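User: two proteins, same treatment. go.

Assistant:
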Amino acid sequence: MELLDMQSMASAIGVSVPVLRFLLCFLATIPVSFLWRFVPSRLGKHAYSALSGALLSYASFGFSSILHFLVPMLLGYASMVLYRKRCGVITFFIGFGYLIGCHVYYMSGDAWKEGGIDATGALMVLTLKVISCAMNYNDGILKEEDLREAQKKYRLLKLPSLIEYIGFCLCCGTHFAGPVYEIKDYIDWTERKGVWASSNSLPSPFGATIRALLQAALCMGLYLYLVPQYPLSMFTSPEYQQWGFWKKLSYQYMAGLTARWKYYFIWSISEASVIISGFGFTGWSDTTPPKPRWDRAKNVDIIGLEFAKSAVEIPVYWNIQVSTWLRYYVYERLVQKGKKAGFFQLLATQTVSAVWHGLYPGYIIFFVQSALMIAGSRAIYRWQQASSSSVVKTLLAAINFGYTVLVLNYSCVGFMVLSLRETIASYGSVYYIGTVIPILVLILGNVIKPARPAKSKARKEE
């Protein structure tokens, strides 16, 4: 009877039974996270975080998901216990190695594209948590002068207990879709330290939670309205091939926009879950009167992304916490001390992001494209900054905006269709415009280099 009810509910909203089961467990993270507030004692809170996350995973994905989560968690913890000097690097390769193995075994991208679900998505978030914890513990034995600001802020001087570590990894189902967060923040939250130290000054979470839920409802409504009108199957249909250039380009934009509303919905639910627990609170704004900030819960800025002035801004607005993780644990750590980051660091970071998503050609191509897109946008911005004419500055700003809209929505087709054949076919149908333009901009950026601002006479005399 229960299976029949699930089947009828799934059919009513147009999803499979596994996806419905996941959605119900995902929505359950909100009341589960709220109840965390009433659990007594630090140990009790850690146990509740671990147990609730495990039970939600079991209900959503089955017992096998627990076994998959245990592998990187326990191997990561073992590396911290046994070999602190290299535990960060060891955990990085163990975590990504196991995740890649699961990606290959389950080929989850095909399931996601067709509306299915498995535990690989949750394992992706968990992998980042495990790696960051080990790297922070590794940083705890390094000299402070050798550390960057983020390393100083999050380094661990002592090994977290096993229950703290498991609670951090599975906290109230946050590993389902994020956000990724630091173990130091998790422990401070549990122990009422930092911004949570004074219970009298903590804001009510209910207004921000309701706002996140309303945003989630709007995003899901728009997704359900748009998705039948812009199916991905159109990219390989004879009808699409007969369209003109501008119609194809417009369809790529609308297909990308449609897909984004699904992610906006998922991250809005995650945001509501983290806010209502109190963990999302990051302090008060400098405005008068001061307003509570919930930055730790925020994983997307919809308006910021859709109207991004530059491709450089996209990681600031999209999958915010994962973008921050990539900056702290990949991008910055590849830059040698005393040197500036370049295209290599950007490309390496985007490649790690691609592998993290899965080994589909569409992912790899998309993130290589992203590196080109961001580098090209930086070149346009440098010209804009170097110009002394306000008219030219405005024109270049408009060009950068148009460039970002064009290249982003062209590139994300690969992220959606995944296969090499479909990716190349969709890119080729618009003459690879989103690949050619960034390359041309980068070539021009090396030929037409903006003049450096002249040093003042007083500065020279010094």
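Protein 2:
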Amino acid sequence: MSLLRKGQQWGTFARIWHIFDATWQDPYRSAPLIKKYLMGLYKPIYHPMNDCGDHVIVINSKQIALRGDEWQKRVYFHHTTYCGGATWTLAWELHSKDPTMIVKKAVYSSMDGNLQRRYTMQRLHIFPDDNVPKEMLENVSNQIRQLRRVPVRLYDIPQEQQAQIPRLIKYPADYELK
């Protein structure tokens, strides 16, 4: 085999590291996108029995956003295998205990229930903030684009740009906002 072919084969089967910022993202809509890179579905050599997936680093999982009132209504089930060991945990309770768990469960449930699912999940690295070890950041070569743009807050905009925003209502000087 020529050196060129060996290089192509190495590049094809090499594991690439991707990074995904979960700030203001819905984990259940982001999960299929993360799954695509974890399992290697975007690669031309993909086969369900071929382990060709990549590593994915998810940062800022503490700042995820669920739609509507899912924080109060989404329930996670756990059973200890003992009699009467069933527990149901609301999303906001689970998120306050472990901020990475909701993203992990969303990605896990989006994958098909095959034998490689648990081994594929070992390549998913979730961090509650953007403090990622340097050893992992050195390997990252791709950033996965967010599904939803993060809106800019008014206090993040400089005063000069705030002054240029057109005002709809000009309040009198003695008016008190309540």
